[in-house]
Amino acid sequence: MPRTNPRRRDALADAAVELTAVAGVGGVTHRAVDRAAHVPIGTTANYFPSRDELLSAAAHRVAEVHLAESMTATAAAAANQAGDAAGQLTDLLAASLVTAATTHRTRYLAIYELQLEAQRRPALAGALAKLSEIAEAQTQAMHLALRDAGAPPGAVPLLITLYGGALFMLVTGPGPIDAAVVRRLVEAMVTGARSTG
Amino acid sequence: MPRTNPRRRDALADAAVELTAVAGVGGVTHRAVDRAAHVPIGTTANYFPSRDELLSAAAHRVAEVHLAESMTATAAAAANQAGDAAGQLTDLLAASLVTAATTHRTRYLAIYELQLEAQRRPALAGALAKLSEIAEAQTQAMHLALRDAGAPPGAVPLLITLYGGALFMLVTGPGPIDAAVVRRLVEAMVTGARSTG
DNA sequence: TATGTTCCACAACAACTGTTGTGGAATAGG
DNA sequence: CCTATTCCACAACAGTTGTTGTGGAACATA
């Protein structure tokens, strides 16, 4: 059985993720990953014998990296907790949106590519499901902030949907990211979510 | 020069759009379109000599069909105009979201596929730009309704972004479309957009 | 050192791709 | 009926794909 060296595995999966973003799902082939990762032709095919496994590995990897990064981000956000809950939530989400749409833009492009491919590839859908779980678990702070701000239950999943949708529009949209525009967007999202009955 | 019979052209482009939705951009090949449209192998290659032209034709076609349909929808919506502007807008958007995410789901899947492919295919980006123009022109009624409801300028593009993002989440999300959830989503969007300063 | 096991580089396969060219059918003009 | 032009079905090309198999290197164990 192949696929044994964990370091190589992750490196190949990372290369696959990057390839997904810059070349699309269609550009993710065993040989293309080999070239991108500067390993001999055939290596990727040894670690991920089928294309399903290759794409699922990319999905798992992107979830793994995302989880690792968001844990530190949450810790930092939890550090400063004072006053105006809704305002803090707005600040947090606006900053999060901007960095997601700029610094991590290629990562989300890859995620969207995989998300669409998952429509016709059940194994990929399973791998991507973990990403949604992360997003939900990630919003414990959001729960508290909204509860403090007097929002009804059900406001959190609503906010998550609005946030995720806005991120897609920003990432795939034409223009550069305008922080002021993002700020207004988040204000509208939070206000709207709080007002829901 | 090929590509002459307009009816055949549209039929091939339609087949390309459907293929984009069910097989992804990567599945849209000359021969695959031939098979899907039940025409002899080689036909699509005669009408759209390069892959760029083929995908761009699919984008143009999806915009064309979308425009034709949305014009009748707008006419119907403009028919009943009375009272409570914001409430009417909410009704209109909620109904629009539901049909977009259910009846026209495959169309939007195709659009998202093409949108991502356009990131690395300038010709496609140009073809898709017309879709955004349609969406903006489509919102004259939205402008009026929001103005009547005392919303600030800039609320309309904000609402369009929220709407487009929510549609993506609904179309690519796992579960079926729940009309009540969509309703709450739209209420939050409209409330949020109106409150923006 | 001998041995068994893990890992990997490479070859080979059939199938599919985009693109281009060509010959003939269909059609229109006279 | 003849001719010229438009349209299209098909063949051929070199290249790439997923997948599988194989032989040997590297390694640990004894």
UniProtKB/TrEMBL annotation, chains A, B:
Coiled coil: none
HTH tetR-type domain ranges (all copies): 6-66
Assigned keywords, A-Z: DNA-binding
InterPro entries in the cross-refs: Homeodomain-like_sf (IPR009057), HTH_TetR (IPR001647), TetR_C_31 (IPR041583)
SUPFAM superfamilies the record matches: Homeodomain-like
The keyword Transferase appears for this protein: no
Start-end of DNA-binding region: 29-48
Keyword check for rRNA-binding: no
Protein name, per record: TetR family transcriptional regulator
